[in-house]
Amino acid sequence: MEQQVNFEQNKAAVVIITGASSGLGAALTRKLDATLPEDVEFWLIARDESKLSHFAGSLDHQSRLFAIDLTEYSAFVALRTALEEESPHVLLLINNAGEGCSCLFEEQDVDAHASLCDLNVRAQLAMTSVVLPHMSQGSALLFTASVAAFFPQPGFASYAASKAFIVSYSRAIREELKDRGIRVTVTCPNTMFTDFLTEGQKQARLNSYKRFGIEDPDLVAEKTLAAMRRDKAVVVTSLTGKAIRVAAKLLPTGWVVSWINRKNRTGSQ
Ligand SMILES: NC(=O)c1ccc[n+]([C@@H]2O[C@H](COP(=O)([O-])OP(=O)(O)OC[C@H]3O[C@@H](n4cnc5c(N)ncnc54)[C@H](OP(=O)(O)O)[C@@H]3O)[C@@H](O)[C@H]2O)c1
Fold first, then answer.
1. Residue at 3 is within a domain
2. Is residue 2 part of a domain?
3. Are 125 and 73 a contacting pair, CB within 8 Å?
4. Mind listing the pLDDT tens digit for each residue in 205-247?
């Protein structure tokens, strides 16, 4: 991305990253920290201010911290106000923050469903809408989806559906934004052992067929940024992910969904 960016004169150049303080967001930020020109400023977003501040302290670039909860409308008001006051040139928006659920739909209450939808879907649209007016030719949008996007998944239903939404949405706006010279990429990692998963969930994955797809967030970040520079629409960072994507195109969805459900119920390997 850095080779093709137009720096607008007299405007601060900014990269905005949601979910920057840990996991994949932190890995992406560290890679950008090592490659972007030093006058680019990072705007880092997460809820926990001390964690965010500790992470920002490890970076060479200047950072502005937004300790905001993206499930709340006030977060977008704060961000829009900052953008209007500073009027920066946003080189890149990484819509990465997301939350999961690993249980049957009926086992979760309405608040958990609403929160997942607010962060994984509503916040992606709101962030994009608020930031786009500050982008121009050469800017880029990166979304974090998941291999879970490729199939409906019993035991993971709302999460997989939210990620399918992101893949669909990002591919559509990619075409809409072509005339403005703004590129859009969505990355689809497989399982990563980050704070996203509890210790119990990590152990369950190690004991199941999902152990074959585990990825390192640093490698995911590297492959994602490289693919984004090549202007790929969809990045699948693992071999297992690529196989799942092909299977989703070839196999009858009903058969696969039923197979996943049987695997979940038997807790099988
Ligand atoms: N880990 C996996 O197995 C996996 C696989 C495929 C895709 N993904 C996707 O990858 C993305 C990053 O996940 P990760 O594994 O890196 O998770 P992570 O390590 O838990 O990081 C999540 C980040 O998002 C922030 N965040 C969470 N809720 C937020 C909210 N309501 N408002 C603002 N920031 C919030 C967290 O900071 P605070 O808690 O301080 O807010 C943290 O910085 C997600 O979209 C996830 O769906 C993950």
1. no
2. no
3. no
4. 888 878 888 999 999 999 999 999 999 999 999 999 999 999 9
CA nearest ligand 1 atom 41, residue: 47
Please tell me if the CB atom of residue 69 comes closer than 6 angstroms to any atom of ligand 1: yes
Tell me, yes or no, whether 6 lies in a domain. no
Residue 5 in any domain: the answer is no
Find where tokens 């035991």 sit: 155
Does the Cβ of 216 fall within 6 Å of ligand 1?
no
pLDDT at 8: 53
Q: Which of 47, 74, 212 is the best mutation target for the ligand 1 pocket, counting ligand atoms within 8 Å of the beta carbon and taking the most?
A: 47
By residue range, what is the domain housing residue 213?
13-266
When divided into structural domains, the chain yields a total of 1
pTM of the model: 0.95
Sheet of strand 41-46, all strands in order from the earlier edge strand to the far edge: 63-67, 41-46, 13-18, 89-95, 140-144, 183-188, 234-236
Pocket lining: 193 vs ligand 1, CB cutoff 6 Å = no
